[in-house]
Amino acid sequence: MSDTFQAAMVAGHLRIFSLLPRTARVGDPHICSGVLGVGDAPVIIPRKNWPAEGVNFSDEVWRIRDQNGFSLCHSFGGATVAEIAHERAGHRKILLSAGSLAGQVTGHQDDGAAIQDVLPVLRDKGLCPASLIDENDYKGRNWPKGWEAEAAKYRAEYVWDCGQGAKVFDSIVTCLLLGWPVLLGTSAFGGGHAVAVTGYQYDGTKVRLFGPNSWGEKYKGWDLPGFWSYTESQLRDVSNYGAFGVQLPASNPDDNPPAVEV
C-alpha cells in the first residue's frame, strides 16, 4: 500500500480513504468515450424537465460490498456500477469480481487510484465473474487461464464524463434519467472515496443523490442498509475526483456466464 491514503474512524470502523484526484482534463478520449453535452454524447437534461418522482435503481442492487481494510474503493464501487449497468442492459444478475478490476487498475497492489484510472480498464478490458476470480483477489495469483476473454464480456460500451464545472450534478442526474448508474468520487465521507450512484431526488431547489456504499450492510447512511445519501452541497470535491456514467452493451457474447446466482 502506498503512503497516499488517509485512515479515519467512521461509525466505529477504521476506513481507508485512497481515492486520488483526477488529472486528465474533461473530454480526454483516452479516459472516456464522451462528455455530457459535447459532441455525440447526450445533452444535459434541464432541471425543469426532471421528473418529480426522481429515479431509483436500488432494487437492482442485490449485494452490498464490504471492502474491509482494502484501499480499493475505486474498484469496489466500479464493480457495483458494472453489475447494475449489466442488468439494466437486459442481462441476468451477476456478481462481478471487484478484485479482478482492482488488480488491473493498480498492478496487483492494494493501492489507491483515481476513478479515471478505473474507466479505461472497465471500458477496454472488463472484469470477471466472481465465480472465476474471488471478490477480494486483486493479486492475480489465482486468476484462471483465459480470464481475459471472460473479462472482455463485461466491458463498458460507453463511459460518460459528467464534467468538472457547475453542471456536474445536472450531468449525473442526466445519466440516471437515461438509465445509467454513475461512479462518483467525493470527500463527503471524510476523505477521497468512490461510490455508486443509483438514484436522485429533487425538490425543486436541491438535488439529493444516493446509492450503495462499499462498507458493508452495517453502514447506515440512508434508509437502506449499506446505502449513503447526500445533497449536492454536501458532496464536496466531485469535480476534483470525477463522476462518470457507465453503460454496458445491450448484447453480451455469453448470456449464460459462470455467474453467482441470486
What is the secondary structure topology, with strand pairs?
Elements: E1 6-10, E2 13-17, E3 34-35, E4 55-56, H1 73-88, H2 98-106, H3 115-124, H4 147-151, E5 158-161, H5 168-177, E6 182-186, E7 193-197, E8 199-202, E9 207-212, E10 227-231, H6 238-241, E11 243-247
Parallel strand pairs: 3-5
Antiparallel strand pairs: 1-2, 4-8, 5-11, 6-7, 6-11, 8-9, 9-10
Helix pairs in contact: 1-2, 1-3, 2-3
Question: Which short descriptors sum up this protein?
Answer:
about 260 residues, alpha+beta, globular, 4-stranded antiparallel sheet, Cathepsin B, Chain A, 5-stranded mixed sheet
Class from helix and strand fractions:
alpha+beta
End-to-end C-alpha gap:
33 Å
Strand order of the largest sheet: 3-5-11-6-7
SSE succession: EEEEHHHHEHEEEEEHE
| Domain count | 1
Q: Fraction of residues in helices? A: 10-25%
What would the CATH topology be? Cathepsin B, Chain A
What is the number of helical segments per DSSP (H or I, 4+ residues)?
6
Q: How much strand?
A: 15-25%
Low-confidence stretches: none
Rg from alpha-carbon coordinates = 17 Å
Average pLDDT confidence is 88
The CATH architecture can be named as Alpha-Beta Complex
> What coarse outline follows from CA principal-axis ratios?
globular
Number of strands: 11
Indicate the CATH class: Alpha Beta
Biggest beta sheet summary: 5 strands, mixed
CATH superfamily: Cysteine proteinases
Describe the protein.
This protein has 262 residues and is an alpha+beta fold. It has one domain (6-20, 29-247): Cysteine proteinases (Cathepsin B, Chain A), CATH 3.90.70.10. 21% of the residues lie in helices and 18% in strands. The chain has helices at 73-88, 98-106, 115-124, 147-151, 168-177, 238-241; strands at 6-10, 13-17, 34-35, 55-56, 158-161, 182-186, 193-197, 199-202, 207-212, 227-231, 243-247. It has a five-stranded mixed β-sheet with strand order 3-5-11-6-7, sandwiched between helices. It has a four-stranded antiparallel β-sheet with strand order 4-8-9-10, covered by helices on one side. Strand 6 (182-186) and strand 7 form a beta hairpin. Helix 1 (73-88) packs across helix 2 (98-106).
